[in-house]
Specification:
With 391 residues, the chain is α+β, with helices and mostly antiparallel strands. The chain has helices spanning 5-19, 21-61, 112-118, 142-148, 180-183, 213-223, 233-236, 238-276, 278-286, 291-326, 354-371, 373-380, 384-390, and strands at residues 64-69, 83-98, 101-110, 125-128, 137-141, 155-159, 167-175, 186-190, 201-207, 229-232, 330-331, 347-348. The longest helix is centred in the N-terminal third of the chain and has 41 residues, at 21-61. 32% of the residues are buried.
């Protein structure tokens, strides 16, 4: 094949497709539908991952937890690029008692105003409110309240050491998250109401959308002493990390399977299309067109059709994602009432990523080229005389 002939055959392939407008449109609809649907589904899968992560780390823990921070380090020093908020907390293991009942408990000192602004724990307060700064108040879970038969306004005593006389706290609120780690072992009080002399503090670090956890961790570990320990949400919740990875793998499998079926449909349709126009291919061969050129023509036809269909499908998929986001997402709260990964909100917002945007068109193009092999081989293997004898 001489240099520059590819452009000539691309023009011929384009004219073939235009002339067979209805057949081209019918084949293109399959690709357009598949690309648009899979772009939307991929973006929705990312939205599900975002929702699970947002619901889990946004409830209380944050994306990164720092332990054993000395008083010489301020929260502002942790506020680097990519960090949205840093919450200061102190944890005190001890015993919570009321009447004749006593239970091991961790008292967490918090800054209520900052907590209510950054975390979603306040949404889980079913009765009462956060403890107020300057007041000896405590926020307990529904499980703890039931254990002590406590109500708003009742007094409970917390002892940090068995020999301590303890501190009396008035119940200001009762919360329920559905997460055992929070509901069964932690109570909250204002940070300024807990003796903290010489006690290290902890930080909950919340990241901005798109910030990489490992990048922030590397900066922290280089900047702060080795005595400060950092843990990411992946270390805290390996089950959620595996669930997100499993969903990503499942989406790849779905994309490959869908376009595998579409490719078979395209190949079969092109074979029928070629058989119907076999006389034209026979005449072209009789005029001296080589088998390689015939094969190139068919491959170019399939690729051109696929590229045009992918462009339309990509536009349709993006518009569908934007439309769903614009109307406020997809609310699946009715189906997630008992799912701890959707404990705050069941609203999904599809989000486009490089993978969700380009993987469906790329796989479609790959499978379209594979689909072109069968019809190309069908024409290339037959001699002009045999083709003309058949028609």
């Amino acid at each position: 094949m001489k240099p520059g002939q590819t452009g000539f055959w691309a023009k011929i392939a384009f004219l073939f497709l235009i002339r067979s407008g209805r057949a081209t449109a019918a084949l293109s609809v399959m690709v357009v539908t598949a690309v648009a649907a899979l772009i939307f589904l991929s973006a929705l899968a990312v939205g599900v991952e975002d929702a699970m992560l947002r619901n889990t780390v946004g409830l209380f823990s944050g994306h990164i937890i720092a332990y054993n921070l000395p008083d010489g380090i301020s929260p502002e020093e942790l506020s680097i690029k990519g960090v949205q908020a840093v919450l200061k907390r102190r944890y005190f293991p001890g015993v919570l008692s009321g009447g004749a009942i006593a239970q091991p408990m961790t008292l967490c000192g918090i800054t209520p105003d900052r907590e209510s602004t950054v975390t979603a724990l306040e949404k889980k307060i079913s009765e009462g409110r956060y403890p107020s700064p300057g007041r000896q108040e405590i926020l307990i879970s529904r499980d703890i309240a039931d254990t002590f038969s406590a109500r708003i306004g009742d007094t409970l005593r917390f002892s940090h050491q068995p020999t301590d006389s303890g501190l009396d706290f008035i119940v200001s609120g009762i919360y329920q998250t559905g997460l055992p780690a929070l509901d069964r072992g932690i109570a909250f009080s204002a940070l300024d109401r807990i003796p903290a002399e010489g006690v290290s503090w902890s930080a909950a670090v919340f990241l901005r959308d798109g910030a990489r956890t490992d990048t922030i961790l590397n900066i922290y570990r280089q900047r702060f002493p080795e005595t400060v320990h950092f843990e990411s949400w992946e270390q805290q919740m390996p089950d959620l990390r595996q669930l997100i990875d499993l969903e990503a793998v499942s989406m790849v499998v779905v994309i490959v399977l869908v376009f595998g079926v579409v490719a078979i449909g395209i190949a079969c349709s092109f074979v029928i299309f070629i058989i119907r126009n076999m006389r034209e291919y026979g005449i072209m061969k009789a005029m001296g067109v080589t088998s390689a050129e015939m094969s190139l023509l068919i491959v170019i036809k399939v690729v051109l059709m696929n590229l045009a269909a992918c462009a339309v499908g990509l536009l349709a998929g993006v518009l569908a994602v934007l439309a769903v986001t614009w109307v406020g997402g997809i609310d699946i709260t009715a189906f997630t009432t008992h799912n701890r990964y959707f404990s705050v909100s069941g609203v999904l917002y599809p989000r486009l990523t490089a993978f969700s945007l380009w993987a469906p068109p790329a796989v479609s193009l790959l499978f379209s080229m594979i689909a072109a092999v069968w019809p190309a081989a069908l024409v290339a293997r037959r001699r002009a005389a045999d083709i003309l004898r058949l028609v």
